[in-house]
Design goal:
The protein is of the alpha+beta class. It has 15 helices and twelve strands.
Length: 418
C-alpha cells in the first residue's frame, strides 16, 4: 500500500484516521483510483466492521468489511436479495437491464444453468491447448527491452481472444468486446462521471450486433458457446423477445469474462514488482504457479464490491439492518482481513489455502467462470516463465476511477529475456 500521509496530501484526500467515523465514505471512486482505499477499510475493520454511511452520492448504505461477515451476507440469499442492482448505485429506472446475477430464486438458477456448460471443465480442457497457443503467440510478439503498456498488449488482447471463443464471436471484430465491457462498467452507479445517454446508445449497438448472432445460432445446430446455449435453452430461448433482459445478460457475461481476468493479469505483474522476492521464488519453483494464481486473484480482488438489498430486518455484527437497506459487501476489504488471512497485505505465492479468498464470491452467486479465469492466468504465467527472466515495471501503474472494477489502464513494463 502507498504511504497514506503523503498520498492523501498529494490527492487532497482526507487521512481516514483523522476523520470522524461516521464521515468515512469508502465508496468514493478517487480512493480506488489513487490506491488509497486500504487504510479506509482497515479503520472500518478495526472500529466499525458493519458501518452505516447515510450521506453518500449513492444514498445511505451499509459497508460490510470483514471476511466472515461478507460470507454470511453472500450466503444468505433469502434475506439479502440481488434484485435489481448489484453495484452500490441504483441503475436509471428507465434503463432496466435484468441479468441473472441480479435475480433471485428459480429464474436466476435456470438462466445460470443454461450458460454454465460453456465454462464446464470438459469444455475448458478442450480449449486449453488453443489458449496456450494464443498466449505464446502474444508473448512472442512483444518487444524485448522496450517500454510498452502490458494492459493493452497482453491483458486486454488475451482476455478478448478468450471472450471471442466463449461467445463464438467473429474474431475479426473481437475488439468490440473489451470496448463494450468498458462501456458497461463505466457508469455513474460506480462513481464514474460518464455521459449516460451516450453509454446507452453504445450498449444499444452491442444489443443489435448480438441480436443478429442470436438469429444465426437459433437457426443452426446447438453448440456450447454462450449465444447458442441461450438461443436453444428451454428457459432462455424467448429472451430475444425481451431485448433489455438479453442486453443485461450480455453485459454480465462480457464483463464477467473480461474485466476480472484482464485486471488480474495486470495485477500479477504489479504484485511481482512490488514483491520481487516472490518472482524469484516462482522462477525457482514453477510448480507454484497454480497457487500463485489464487494469490494474485486475492491480492488484486478484481471486483471491489457486490451489493445486496435487505428483505427483512436482520442483525449483523451487532447492528440492526432494516428491511430495504442497501448492503455493500466489500470484497476488496475482506481479502485484507487480518483476523482471517495471515499478513494479508503481503503478496505470498506459497500462501497456505490460497483459494480462501472472496474474489469469486460465495453462495448461489459465486462466479460461474472462476475456473476459466484461473486457467487463463495459470497458462499466462507458465508461458512467461519459459520466455522472460523479468517483467520490469518502469513507471507507476494508472488505475481506473471506480469503486467496482479494481482495474488498470496502464502498466508500463520492459521485458528481459532469459
Amino acid at each position: 500500500m502507498p504511504d497514506t500521509a503523503s498520498a492523501v496530501e498529494a490527492h487532497n484526500i482526507a487521512d481516514p484516521w483523522t476523520l470522524p467515523l461516521d464521515a468515512l465514505d469508502v465508496a468514493r471512486a478517487d480512493l480506488f483510483e489513487h490506491n488509497l482505499h486500504g487504510e479506509y477499510f482497515r479503520r472500518l475493520r478495526q472500529e466499525d466492521p458493519v458501518h452505516f454511511h447515510k450521506d453518500s452520492e449513492f444514498g445511505p448504505y451499509w459497508s460490510v468489511t470483514k471476511f466472515n461477515d461478507i460470507v454470511a451476507v453472500d450466503s444468505n440469499h433469502e434475506v439479502f436479495s440481488s434484485h435489481r442492482d448489484i453495484v452500490i448505485g441504483d441503475a436509471p429506472p428507465d434503463f432496466n437491464t435484468p441479468m441473472f446475477i441480479a435475480m433471485d430464486g428459480g429464474k436466476h438458477r435456470a438462466q445460470r444453468k443454461t450458460v454454465s456448460p460453456a465454462v464446464a471443465p470438459k469444455q475448458l480442457s478442450e480449449v486449453e491447448a488453443l489458449i496456450r497457443q494464443r498466449v505464446g503467440k502474444v508473448l512472442d510478439s512483444l518487444p524485448i527491452g522496450e517500454t510498452f503498456n502490458w494492459v493493452d498488449h497482453v491483458s486486454i488482447e488475451l482476455t478478448t481472444q478468450m471472450l471471442a471463443t466463449l461467445f463464438d464471436f467473429p474474431f475479426e471484430d473481437r475488439h468490440l468486446l473489451p470496448f463494450w465491457s468498458d462501456v458497461t462498467t463505466n457508469s455513474s452507479t460506480v462513481g464514474m462521471d460518464v455521459d449516460m445517454e451516450e453509454r446507452e446508445r453504445q450498449l444499444g449497438e452491442c444489443l443489435g450486433y448480438f441480436s443478429e448472432l442470436w438469429k444465426q445460432r437459433a437457426a443452426a445446430e446447438p453448440k456450447f458457446d454462450f449465444i447458442s446455449l441461450l438461443a436453444h435453452g428451454e428457459n432462455t430461448k424467448d429472451m430475444i423477445n425481451n431485448p433489455m433482459e438479453l442486453l443485461g445478460n450480455l453485459m454480465l457475461l462480457i464483463v464477467g469474462g473480461n474485466d476480472t481476468t484482464r485486471n488480474s493479469m495486470s495485477g500479477g505483474v504489479v504484485a511481482f514488482n512490488q514483491f520481487p522476492e516472490e518472482w524469484q521464488k516462482l522462477r525457482a519453483n514453477p510448480e507454484l504457479v497454480p497457487n500463485a494464481v489464487s494469490e494474485i486473484i486475492r491480492y488484486q480482488t478484481p471486483l471491489g464490491h457486490m451489493r445486496r438489498n435487505a428483505l427483512e430486518d436482520i442483525e449483523l455484527g451487532g447492528k440492526l439492518i432494516r428491511k430495504g437497506d442497501k448492503v455493500v459487501m466489500w470484497y476488496v476489504s475482506g481479502n485484507r482481513d487480518e483476523t482471517v488471512i495471515d499478513e494479508p497485505d503481503v503478496f505470498k505465492i506459497d500462501r497456505d489455502r490460497a483459494r480462501q479468498h472472496l474474489s469469486f464470491g460465495f453462495g448461489v452467486h459465486r462466479c460461474m467462470g472462476n475456473r476459466v479465469a484461473e486457467m487463463q492466468i495459470r497458462i499466462l504465467w507458465e508461458e512467461i516463465l519459459t520466455r522472460f527472466s523479468r517483467i520490469e515495471m518502469v513507471g507507476a501503474p494508472t488505475r481506473t476511477g471506480s469503486n467496482f472494477v479494481m482495474g488498470f489502464k496502464d502498466v508500463p513494463v520492459k521485458l528481459h529475456a532469459l
